[in-house]
Design brief:
The chain is an alpha/beta fold. The protein has 3 domains: 201 residues, FAD/NAD(P)-binding domain (3-Layer(bba) Sandwich); 110 residues, FAD/NAD(P)-binding domain (3-Layer(bba) Sandwich), CATH 3.50.50.60; 105 residues, 2-Layer Sandwich (Enolase-like, domain 1), CATH 3.30.390. Helices cover 32% and strands 24% of the residues. The strands form 5 sheets. Strands 1, 2, 3, 4, 5, 6 and 16 form a 7-stranded mixed beta sheet that branches. A 5-stranded antiparallel beta sheet has the order 17-18-21-20-19, with helices on both faces. Helix 1 runs parallel beside helix 4, helix 1 packs parallel to helix 9 and helix 3 packs across helix 6.
């Protein structure tokens, strides 16, 4: 008789948990995964996928306006919010089914319910106990809201995907990528939108030229950006929320969305019962192979203190499966992970920012270009695209690529391969561009900006 019920028991069927479970099963492991909510986790249900669908929807107003410059006559426009949300829900439901089929086809047992760790090899779900040689924690993260007078009236990104109607006036609080994305979504769909951030400039940690350029572009679009401020209290009067700011001024809205951070969803999971070390934030402390302080328990994705990105969680799930069941220990490299902000306009980045390069004592040359895209020579729009390369002067290696403009994520994804391969500025220069595209600017920048 087997010593354990399963070789691997995964808690959380998000992108990382599903990938780790499927790959482990493909290597011959007996695997179960427990999920208390919908399959697919944050990304599929209240994250990347529905957010990107709403981003697509928010771009059409600009497209309608731009069409006139190309000779099109477009009639009155309006958004049917209920239809948009219903169509979004249908797609999410389809993806839930896809995830279930992936697990079923891989031979992974799905256990529906909230799991708790009882000891290093035992998990409890719905009053039943299961044992496993290894436990994989993949529970993700959850939006965090500060407590202040009236904070019970705000929503998070979770609720924003299910609002019964589109608010006419919105305040977004927070300066991370989720905040700027939702500010763009609501504004693009026609809501009067303000974004507040307590710091001097949003998107802390991103290249400063991305931050400055995006702020300029959002202001051009009419989004009310307010930095170095915060909400002190909120008072509800009927359908109106009056927000008193720290300087005493008052602004109002129909909805106030807080995007002020996410915390690991490890509370009441029972990890303390097994002796798993947690950070103050609740993040599981893991080693380079994603093993916790307990030999039999691993953790991946947003519930650790690494990068909160879906592809990172997927890579981590694959790495754990290989380490445990394929005799191929994998230690991931987080150095040059590309990412995009689906703001209005989009941002994309890979590698070191200029500020990070200086902190690491690189002597760098900066190549930067800001230009009006060809499309807007006909539309009359004042939108600018910004592209930037950070180059190590000693080796000529491209340390970072940064962009603000349409399809930035699509363009930066390709450049991420080059950066990870150690491409030099000379190799960028000798690459013939595709004309006319915005992307060709990355291989035609010859003059150092500084």
């Amino acid at each position: 008789m087997a010593q354990y019920d399963y070789d691997l028991f995964t808690i959380g069927a998000g992108s990382g948990g599903v990938r780790g479970s499927r790959v482990a099963a493909a290597f011959g492991a007996k695997v179960a995964v427990a999920e208390e909510s919908a399959l697919g986790g944050t990304c599929v249900n209240v994250g990347c996928i529905p957010k990107k669908l709403l981003v697509y929807a928010s771009h059409y107003l600009d497209d309608f306006r731009d069409a006139a410059g190309f000779g099109w006559t477009v009639g009155p426009q309006s958004i049917n919010w209920a239809k948009l949300i219903a169509n979004k829900d249908n797609e999410i439901h389809r993806l839930n089914g896809v995830y279930r089929k992936l697990l079923d086809d891989a031979g992974v047992e799905i256990i529906e319910g909230r799991a708790q760790v009882l000891d290093p090899h035992t998990i409890g779900v719905n009053g039943k106990r299961y044992t496993a040689k290894y436990i994989l924690i993949a529970v993700g993260s959850w939006p965090s809201i500060p407590t202040f007078p009236g904070s019970e009236h705000v929503i998070t990104s979770n609720e924003a995907f299910y609002l019964p109607e589109l608010p006419s006036k919105v305040i977004v609080v927070g300066g991370g990528y989720i905040g700027v994305e939702f500010a763009g979504i609501f504004h693009g769909l026609g809501a009067e939108t303000a974004q507040l951030y307590r710091g001097e400039l949003f998107l802390r940690g991103f290249d400063n030229d991305i931050r400055l350029t995006l702020a300029d572009e959002m202001l051009k679009r009419g989004i009310d950006l307010r930095f170095k401020t915060d909400i002190a209290k909120i008072e509800k009067h009927g359908d109106i929320l009056n927000a008193t700011l720290i300087d005493g001024s008052v602004i109002n809205a129909n909805q106030i969305l807080y995007a002020t951070g996410r915390v690991p969803k490890t509370r009441d999971l029972g990890l303390e019962n097994a002796g798993v070390e947690l950070r103050q934030s609740g993040a599981v402390v893991v080693d380079p192979y994603l093993r916790s302080s307990v030999e039999s328990i691993y953790a991946i994705g947003d519930c650790t203190d690494r990068l909160m990105l879906t592809p990172v969680a997927i890579a981590e799930g694959t790495a754990v499966a290989n380490t445990l069941f394929n005799n191929r220990p994998i230690m991931l490299d987080y150095e040059n992970v590309a990412t995009a902000i689906f703001s209005a306009p989009n941002c994309g980045t890979v590698g070191l920012t200029e500020e990070q390069a200086h902190r690491r004592e690189f002597e760098v040359d900066i190549y930067m270009s800001s230009f009006r895209p060809l499309r807007h020579t006909m539309t009359g729009s004042a939108e600018k695209t910004m592209m930037k390369l950070v180059v190590d002067r000693a080796s000529d290696r491209v340390l970072g690529c940064h962009m603000v403009g349409p399809d930035a994520g699509e363009i930066i994804q390709g450049l991420a391969v080059a950066v990870n391969c150690g491409a030099t500025k000379t190799q960028f220069d000798t690459t013939i561009g595709i004309h006319p595209t915005a992307a060709e600017e990355f291989v035609t920048m010859r003059t150092k900006t500084r």
